Description:
By secondary structure, the protein is α/β, with parallel strands linked by helices.
Amino acid sequence: MPTFDFAAVFRRDPDADEPDLVTIDGTDRFLLDEAPHVHGDALRQPGEVAVVDDRNGVLTLGLLTVHGAADVRVVQDSLTAERALEANAGTFGRRGFHHPDSLQDAFRDVRLVLLRLSKSLDRLDEVARAVARFAAPDVVLLCGGQTKHMTLSQNDVLRRSFGDVVATRGRGKSRLLVAQDPLQAAANRAALTSPWPKHVHVDELGLTLVAHGGVFAGASLDLGTRVLLDVVDQAVPTARVAVDMGCGNGVVATVLARRRPALKVVATDVSAIAVASTRATALVNGVDDRVRVLRTDAGDELDAGSAQLVVCNPPFHADSAVSTDAAEAMFRNAATILQAGGELWCVWNSHLRYRPVLERIVGETRQVTRTPKYTVTASRAR
């Protein structure tokens, strides 16, 4: 197998004191090393390889550069990951990949799929079902993750769609799952009897939530969101435009649109899964004409001063690591999006103590309500 010095190539400028654009870890290396062994024939044929949730472009660019793959189909939930791949492809002059519009288009007749495992079993289930339904009969689904985050439940999920599922021995801190023999008939039955996306009626809100696999909170009402919805009717009653930043399954955007018929709602999320879920939730509840859904990174593509109200339930995890970076990016963008005097209504885990951060980034902040676990604040833009 050809050798390739990723560390020497995947950076913006070898002489610049800037962080690498692409960070390759042991799982990426393990997946790339094993790909030719599990299905080398697929690598030699254009259009027969797909990559799922490539975090920074390493897997896609590695397949193109190391293994000579062509016309690679790429499915990336995160917009930031998609942007990183595009940026690095331009930096290194590498193309030969595209982003299909649907999982069906992504996996139709492919023979090898590389997937970075996340903590979501639902995400794995939706992808595995789609591979089993649409890929070639000899497809191999090669999944990789850090051993400490992997569970036997992942094997069980894969066995719903594949007849042969084995785990490799660990290498460093990583391990791979190899799934073969797609159970197409079973996947087709599941698509009818228990389809993705899931639809669940929430009696307390009188609406239906629609969720694709892996979206935050799934087809359920997150506890923090429930606390926010209990008080959000008080938020800027004169608002004409509201932004639901980090819209997830679309429950907040849909509730705002239903409760305030004169309000235009812009729902944004970095996740393609969330965008699809929110669009479906708004549609099934009859407010899709007043809920505009956009895939952006913390609302970074919205115009300055374009809204009077922003609502958000910011994440405080990046995969399995605790991180407040996404929340602070949301606060900064909210301060830009809001007109002077507009308000950011935010629900957060009380132990995070976001109030000083909100005061600094957005403006004067007051507590609206507090439960033993969650705090809702309103911050007035300067």
